[in-house]
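In response to reviewer comment 3 from the previous cycle, which asked for concrete evidence that the modeling workflow produces usable outputs, we include below a single protein chain processed end to end. The sequence was submitted unchanged, and the resulting structure tokens are shown without manual editing.
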Amino acid sequence: METDIQHLINIRQTLHQNPELSGFEEYTAEALKRTIIKYQPDEIIDNLGGFGVAFVFKGLEPGPTVLFRADMDALPIKEINVIDYASRAHGIGHQCGHDGHMAILVGLAGHISKNRPQKGKVVLLFQPAEETGEGALAVINDPNFQRITPEFCYALHNIPGFTKGSILLKNNTFTAASQGITVKLFGKTSHAAEPEKGISPALALSKIIEAITLLPNKKELFSDYVLATIVHAQLGERSFGTTPGQAEVLITLRSFDDADMDVLIQQVETSIKEIADSHGLKSELSFTDIYPSTQNNPSLVQQIKEGAEELDYNIVFLDKPMPWAEDFSQFSKRFKSVFFGLGAGEEQPKLHNPDYNFPDDIISYGVDLFYKVYEQHFTIR
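The workflow returned the following structure tokens.
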């Protein structure tokens, strides 16, 4: 089925001009509703987990519920591209390509409207707040999601560094698990001339940074790749007359295996408590940006492979998972799911870079492969 690429490019570039941060995707949701309502979905469910919106195409007979998902949110990154449709939002940009993912799903809606399912239902879900790791779970926990509980879930992500339009596949783990930890240390300030009268967290902070950074070297504790990255540290206040009384360090943990993440967290908690106690400090930990690993169902990976072969696309099987995290993992924990990569070009700037811009010429690859999956489920030829 022929895709109106220029129409989808116009939509993508409009979304690119109007990016919204996680949890604030109101304009994006309204723009999508104005566009997709023209394709006459049988049901629109909005305000899912925030500003999420689902468009449902229903068959006349019972059958499977198949969900295709695109993420909606942008990043707090100032775009530096000199283009006609550059971001109008100060310090906010679609530097991860979610504008392109949405355009692909709009294209799929157009195709389905011309060849509607005879049985079951198809759900096109535009999900908010992927970048914070909160959106997928918020959508799933929304009472209205029960109306569209899927049997099969599909999603993609553009990936720079690979040939444009290539399909990147992997059985089982596709993206890493990730968690953010904020560690706070509490001591006691003193005059800088009398440091012995205070309890400074300075030495403890340095030991924690070293201990956490070296944790992945304890290979015997883990079954696969793990990483612990110090992303921020602060000690006391900017005052030459006062010793520090508190400190804060932010840590990002990553693993390819969810069980390894549990071990990594336990090791972090133990190390911090031991170091803090030995320096007479109180410690406090909090967790955020929690992403399980994204697990692909091998039978659905095979389905994507067969669809890509029919379309004569280049297929790449990855040797190892992607080290970044993706909250589609919340769907893969609960439903039969597959997440795959769409090559964005070997010379394409990396995701989250200020000069990144989703390449319009890969939109059709995503639309056609998703539609091929739709045909496979509903045997429409």
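The longest strand covers residues 61-71. We consider this sufficient to address the reviewer's concern, and the full set will be provided in the supplementary archive.
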